[in-house]
Design a protein that fits this description.
- The chain contains 15 helices and 13 strands.
- The strands form two sheets. It has a seven-stranded parallel sheet, sandwiched between helices. It has a six-stranded parallel sheet with strand order 10-9-8-11-12-13, with helices on both faces.
- The N and C termini lie close together (11 Å).
- It has 374 residues and is α/β, with parallel strands linked by helices.
Length: 374
């Protein structure tokens, strides 16, 4: 098939780029002709919460990536839409995560499909954003109107789609495995690279730090007597996308500075394996969620997980099988982590992770996409 993916890719960084690039590679492996149309401007700098939007890594190999799209220029949307219409791919795939992108993506899609051939399929990260803003519904509704079929990666998002449309074809396909970050290394090697002591145990909070991800709940958990009297350390690896002051003030107030190790910068793809290899368990204390790429990195590196019972997280982390599903409360987080270490759950969970991860092949996502066209 001839396929165009519209969205984030190199030279931009982060999970969206990683997803689109890995999906493209899967199509290439299946013999399809794939082009990614990515941004010349993704976010204006004043709207971007991080330090930089750009990757410091080498470009991905064997992928056709064109920088053509401005998220804020309507004249550009028309020209890109006409370009895709003329190229006439069988499928135009758009990964949707933020209503801000709806005017850009919705306009390009409407123009592209006027060729009477191209089908527009959207993979939905969210249809209702975690951090709500005025006009979200209007913008998302505009985007939904341009799409022919939808794939939701959590059942909660599939349900949210009903707010905007109940007629168009849609399906659920879980977020595939992030297997593009290299292979696991030994714990000793990882700890050495990160300058961490072998005698401690490490739980990992990984990824962009935003309010809805509940890092404050995890800091509160570290102040519990059970945690304070243990050798367990919290390793925080990720860049702040919200004000960092509240986290450091909470750390000081609870007197847990000796329990937390901060690596609060964006973690490049080449270093992801080191952090996951160093950790005993990956903790996602989210207050709200849909699905998460972090769980799929954990599956790839065969690591137990602790997630909260929000959104679609519980759908892919079977409780007491590959880890824990708890309510988003510090006491519940503490009880699960204590159980993990005191009852030596690690090896049993890892055995089950190896079995469970087989469900999340990228071929399942490409098959779901192609089934709409067939």
């Amino acid at each position: 098939m001839k396929i165009t993916i519209l969205g984030t890719a190199y030279p931009y960084r982060g999970g969206l780029a990683a997803f689109n690039e890995r999906l493209s590679q899967e199509f290439v492996n299946e013999g399809d002709d794939v082009t990614i149309e990515t941004f010349t401007l993704q976010y204006p700098n004043f709207l971007f919460p991080g330090k930089t939007q750009y990757s410091s890594e080498n470009p991905p190999q064997n992928l056709q990536i064109n920088r053509s799209v401005s998220s804020i220029n309507p004249f550009n949307w028309i020209s890109v839409g006409q370009k895709i219409r003329k190229a006439a791919p069988d499928i135009l795939i758009i990964k949707f995560w933020l209503p801000f992108m709806a005017p850009c993506f919705g306009t390009i899609a409407r123009i592209a499909k006027k060729n009477g051939k191209t089908k527009v399929i959207s993979i939905l990260d969210n249809i209702i954003p975690h951090e709500k803003r005025i006009a979200d519904k209007i913008l998302s509704n505009y985007f939904v109107g341009a799409v022919d079929s939808f794939i939701a990666m959590s059942k909660s998002v599939l349900s949210d789609l009903n707010i905007f449309d109940t007629q168009k074809p849609r399906c659920f396909c879980a977020h595939p495995l992030y297997d593009n970050f290299g292979q696991r290394i030994t714990r000793s090697e990882a700890l050495q690279k990160l300058n961490l002591k072998e005698e401690n145990s490490y739980i990992l909070f990984f990824g962009f730090i935003r309010d809805y991800k509940g890092l404050d709940l995890l800091i509160e958990a570290m102040a519990d007597k059970k945690m304070k009297n243990s050798n367990i350390k919290l390793l925080v690896a990720g860049e702040f996308y919200n004000n960092s002051d509240k986290y450091f003030e909470l750390e000081k107030k609870l007197d847990v500075a000796d329990k937390i190790i901060w690596h609060n910068d964006f973690i490049p793809d080449s270093q992801v394996a080191t952090y996951f290899s160093a950790a005993d368990i990956i903790v996602q204390p989210y207050k709200s969620a849909t699905q998460s790429g972090v769980t799929q990195i954990a599956y790839h590196f065969e690591k137990p997980m602790l997630v909260t019972n929000v959104g679609g997280l519980a759908e892919i982390v079977p409780h007491q099988k590959v880890g824990y599903v708890v309510e988003p409360q510090p006491s519940e987080i503490v009880n699960a982590i204590t159980d993990f270490y005191e009852n030596n759950r690690e090896q049993d969970f890892i055995t089950n992770v190896k079995i469970e991860k087989e469900k999340y092949a990228w071929s399942r996502m490409t098959e779901s996409i192609k089934n709409f066209v067939k």
